[in-house]
Amino acid sequence: MTDATIGSLRVNGATLHYEVRGYGPLLLLIPGGTGGAASFDGVADDLAAEYTVATYDPRGMSRSTLDDPEAEQHVAEHADDAFRILELLSPGEPARVFGASSGAITTLHLLTAHPERVERAVAHEPPVVEVLPDAAEHRALLARVQQTLHTQGLMPAMAVFAAGLKEGGAPTEPKAQLQLPPRAAARAEQTMADLPYFVGRIVPSFMSYAPDIHRLETLSDRLVLACGQDSRGELPYRPAAALAERLGMELQQYPGGHTGLTTHPAEFGALLRAAFRS
Questions:
Q1: Dihedrals φ, ψ of 47, to 5°?
Q2: Which intervals hold domain AB hydrolase-1 (predicted)?
Q3: Distance between the two ends of the chain, CA-based, in angstroms?
């Protein structure tokens, strides 16, 4: 890993941890889930050969602290955080932006709220379930997840959530524990530490977000919607496919599934570079 310049940025109600590496036009990478800036470790160095690559821990995750740990979370505020980073690192200049999962929802809102600051945006599997014809079923899923979280705890809630994300809602078998290298083990530990906040605060807010379709239609020339080749039919794939159809654009296929960024970093990074050059 190339050494990154580390910084912190005060925003409304939080202090953001961010990292910058490389030279060239700014490319902001917005993580999803509980990954934080570390989720881009596999691609950041390669992208930094062409871009000034910036990423960060979203507010409340990992090293980005909230003034009020109990504060409700809102997509618009997370998108404003991304905007503040753009203003800091690329004042007055449009930037390229990539977001994954919940970070892709942040990316969609950033594009619609501040189109003058986004030259091109790639959103990978944003779970905007409100665009689906069966959105009511997914609202019910989110309600079950929250009820299970409050009555039975984190891991039962995660099981309900994971089953709902799979095609047909089939439960998944627990994976065997592997001996991880120290860096990966530290990331896994941080992921577990962030899960209660993610499931309790981020999931219900972000998955109830309805994108501004009409606004996105006017900006579709600078938006790329992408999905994992292996996640066809699963919940994170379906909303992106539906949104692409609504906007009349081709859905780009990326390697792997919802976490293809981690499982296929080289191929994923190559497709990202191509998307930002086109």
A1: -65, -30
A2: 25-136
A3: 27
Residues near 209 by beta carbon (within 8 Å), at least 6 away in sequence: 75, 105, 109, 128, 130
CB 164 within 8 A of CB 137: no
Mean pLDDT by 10 residues, the chain (278 residues): 88 98 97 91 94 97 96 97 97 95 98 97 97 94 94 93 68 38 55 88 95 97 97 92 97 95 95 91
For the chain, list the domains and their CATH numbers.
5-134+209-277 (3.40.50.1820)
